[in-house]
Amino acid sequence: MSLTWEDKEVRFDIPFTEMRLKIGEKIIDRLENIEDTKGNGGDRGRLIVTNIRVLWHSVASPRVNLSIGFNCVVTISTKVVNSKLRGTTQALHILTTSNGTRFEFIFTNLVPGSMRHFTSVMGVHKAYISSKLYRELKLRGAVIHNKQLKILPLEQVFSTLHGVWNLSSDQGSLGTFIVTNVRLVWFADMNEGFNISLPYLQISSIRVRDSKFGTALVVTSSDTSGSYILGFRVDPEEKLRNLYKELSSLHSVYKGNPIFGVEYKWCSNKNEEPNEKLVEDVVEIEEPKGEMSNTLAAYLADEGHAKDRPPVYSADLGLAIESVKEGFTLQKLWEVLPS
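Above: the chain sequence. Below: its structure as tokens.
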């Protein structure tokens, strides 16, 4: 399965193919007249909130855009800013970290009195954080209570098998195996706190092969979830083969329609509700060539900056400059897009 990058990365000026919604990605809100105050001040744009990321693009030049994955978000707050289009006003401030670099984004709603960009982004991010079990592997988590699976809101249990051996230790552990529409779960009979919850999103392969314990079901998790190799023994072998077929089938169905688990309902007045009729054309934008937004440095977050770094001589520029921040090079700071 091709794993999502959309919720795990911050990207700038992405092509139309990456602006398109991924399978399973849904638009929750769309807002016109939003300014990217931090990087493209004075430019009217469109903010699109999906169940896994926030998209913004300039209306005049759609090639100038942002993709902010919810998994990158550190904090969401309000901030008083000086907007080129609205003057001094409260704006949405998003602090993120992606690939070891901290970025901050400031979005100003150009519609006087509208707070919808705050409520949408904050509300969906909260729903994203509270639904991690749909998307992330969990070891020894609080997923079982009194020998019963804590079922997620969009989850359906298809089968429960008792007497399944987990082969992760030398002697193996006897427990219960549960198959649902979004994940597989196993927990030990003697200690329900010894468990694993693995969503189909994080499964790279499901196989049946020989082991020192005999024929076993082997499930390998994705690189992003630690590349775990999980072995399970089910007796008789026919029962194991049926489990393999069921898991393989559900995994295949899931790939065709992933369930990310992010649900958000509007509780505002009719004037504040998103226009569902305009959803389909949200990312149907042209892709002008040769247009780029400001450099990535415009979005770098440098919190706690107390004083300027000492000056150094740059042989490349032939003059004295402030020493480059650790982890950056002069060449990277001059690039519009990273090489």
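The CA atoms of residues 160 and 178 lie 5 Å apart.
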